[in-house]
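Record pair follows.
FIRST:
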Amino acid sequence: MTIYYIMLFVMTLIASFASFFLKKSTGGITVLLIIRNKYFYFGGFLYVIGALINIWLLKKMPYSVVVPMGGICYIWIMIIAGIFLKEKIGIGKIMGVLLIVSGVICVIV
């Protein structure tokens, strides 16, 4: 069962980086420029990989565990935004992430 939790953790990380690369692809002014951006395809590829892992996990684990634990993505996204996008991480965001962590812990216990 531990491997499933590790894969869930990996899946949320992949999905979070997928969003990051799709955000990076939006530098173009038009849709055509976005579609030509390499980050658009890399982000899409990561989304597909994350979705496939998610489907596999849904087969192996309870739905009531897999879906709520997807909230871990919010933690990764905040870390990615702070490190790579230089976004400010204030106390409100930190408190929100702590609430998410406590919710995830409640789901898996």
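SECOND:
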Amino acid sequence: MIKIPLNEILSVFDDIKTQNIDSDIQAKCTDFCWGTGEKCIVLAANKKYFQQAINNSNVICIIAPEVIIQTDKPVITTNRFDDLFHYIHNTYFSTKDLITHYVSPTASISENAVICPPVHIGHNTTICSGAYIGKNTVLNDDAYIAQNCTISTEGMLAKSINGIKKHITHYGSVIIGKGCYIHANSNISKGLFYSGKTLIGDYCHIGIGVNIAHDVVIGQSTEISGNSNIAGRSTIGSDVWIGANCTISNWVKIGDKAKVRIGSTVVSDIPEKADVSGNFAIKHTINLRKFIEDQAN
């Protein structure tokens, strides 16, 4: 448990009000309002998230702009609720070991790869020269990590805290399924919170120079072509094909067996088996019809 001292917080955030709090807060982590982190502090910026925080038995303290719904749970309110939450996240918590270290004797690891324990490296996994495998990475059996890949890195999340732009530390993990092939120079960032995981399903193929941000979930047998960018907390289904140089916005969901054509920019959910293209991506046949009409003119 980590002690969050109220007096110290009050010295930094002078407009704080508290409800149901009469001493320092004892917490284990920060998390989402729906998160699974035990004894967590959460940020509830609106009524929907506030209700989720109330209903989540893991939540022991809510940070919010105001008491949106009456609750018996401890609540801290401030006009700078976003600042306060990320200040607590960065200041009072630190990276810790989330898994047990294991390296299979059948794994092939280049002497020029960097391995940061604890990691789990499964049977017949290959890690090539220049690869970086950060702590709390799980590489399941038969995975292939090509040259200069970086796995379990800090994702890009910057927030203003008291007027100064700060990087928000990532504490989570990366889990890569069995039989995955990660091509050269790709990056996969770890989850934001202790409970956060970036998940790559079994038998996925990730092309050259792909960036996969924190807390992304990718289903099995999906292909992501070179130089694509998958933003944080997006979810991609199974058997999806994403063409080269695509950009997938954060929080977007792409359904199973969908196709996202080369160079597309996806900013809204894509249903299963859909075939989309363009910037912003829409049904591919519409874009194709427009292209043919423009050529005819």
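COMMENT: The chain has two domains: 2-92, 102-289.
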